[in-house]
Amino acid sequence: MQPEDIEETIMETDAALAAVAQEQGLTAGLPEVMTLREVVEMGGWPMYVLGVMSLVGLALVFYYLFILRTNHVMPRRFVERLREVLRRGALNEARDLCEKSMAPVSAISLSAIEYARDVESPDPALIKEVIEGEGGRQAALIQNQIQYLQDLAVIAPMIGLLGTVLGMLKAFNAVAGDLARATPMQLAQGVSQALITTAAGLMVGIPAMIAYAYFRNRSARLLAALESASAELLTLLVHRPEE
Question: Is the Cβ–Cβ distance between 95 and 113 less than 8 Å?
């Protein structure tokens, strides 16, 4: 066989293979760079769930940045004003001051002041119990709020894993339906869905867990400062002058 005949045979074989591939849809392939919309569509409905969860997580982060601040938990002007009023022994004025504030420290102060007003000779041990009880309730409210971030960090990878299972089922069903007609493109679509949803779940869960760790430490520092302010409140109530 002459070299010209060999080259012609190779070209005819390549053309035949290309025609078969085009007929079976093998040349469609995936684009080298996929847009966000294409990624979401390939991942299926779990991607929409993960998208909503990412928006919720972002909203929670901004919300916690606003409320987990020293000036929100213990406003400096309020604390200074309350000290001044309690040093004068004006419990009624202190009570009115606490009712106008929504800060956790004001709720703790109000519970202790209410007890001190109702009892002629308040017991320091009972005042301490009142402060500790309300302080524990306020601490639980603060800590329970950031728990949503941890829940988000746990659930997001599970949603991604669900998408992984659905993608693999899609790939296997393409083979199980008709092995002879199953194309690599059909298998690739199922595997792509599995990988995309897994990655998306981790991309939502990992930042949520990092944010939870940060706000957990931040709330711990605020609770320590709140405990110190409660101890000072106890001292001022016990040693207050009579009205």
Answer: yes
